[in-house]
Amino acid sequence: MGLNVYLSGEIHTDWRERIVDGAKGLDVTFNAPVTDHGASDDCGVAILGAEDNKYWHDHKGAMVNAIRTRKGIADADVVVVRFGDKYKQWNAAFDAGYASALGKSLIILQPPEHDHALKEVDAAALAVTREPEQVVEILRYVLDGSLPG
Question: pLDDT class for 121, splitting at 50, 70, 90?
Answer without folding.
Answer: very high
